[in-house]
Design a protein that fits this description.
This protein has 92 residues and is mostly beta strands. The protein contains 1 helix and 6 strands; from the N terminus they run βββαβββ. The strands form 2 sheets. The chain has a 4-stranded mixed β-sheet, covered by helices on one side.
């Protein structure tokens, strides 16, 4: 199983709690682990649902989202936490 393990925020958004301001996500457990742009991951999880999990309990899956402006991004499946689980990953 592939895991999202850390995030890289857009410039000047280091402390943001908006999942749309994530620029890249580090994915481990694949053939070429590393940081991937959120748009690329959007397309990947859209084509391969339930293929990448966030490395924080309860290990929600990444899901594809599109903003009202047409920007592609990913989020974790909703659960009982106020902020998206992706935002709880270490930031680089």
């Amino acid at each position: 199983m592939m895991l999202a393990t850390k995030i890289l925020m857009k410039a000047s958004c280091a402390y943001s709690n908006n999942v749309q301001e994530i620029d890249q996500i580090y994915v481990d457990g694949c053939n070429n682990p590393g940081f991937f742009k959120k748009e690329l991951l959007h397309d990947y999880v859209k084509a391969h649902p339930k293929s990448i999990q966030v490395n924080i309990r309860p290990f929600p899956y990444l899901v594809a989202r599109t903003s009202k402006n047409g920007e592609k991004y990913v989020a974790s499946e909703p659960n009982d936490t106020p902020n998206d689980n992706l935002l709880k990953l270490p930031r680089y």
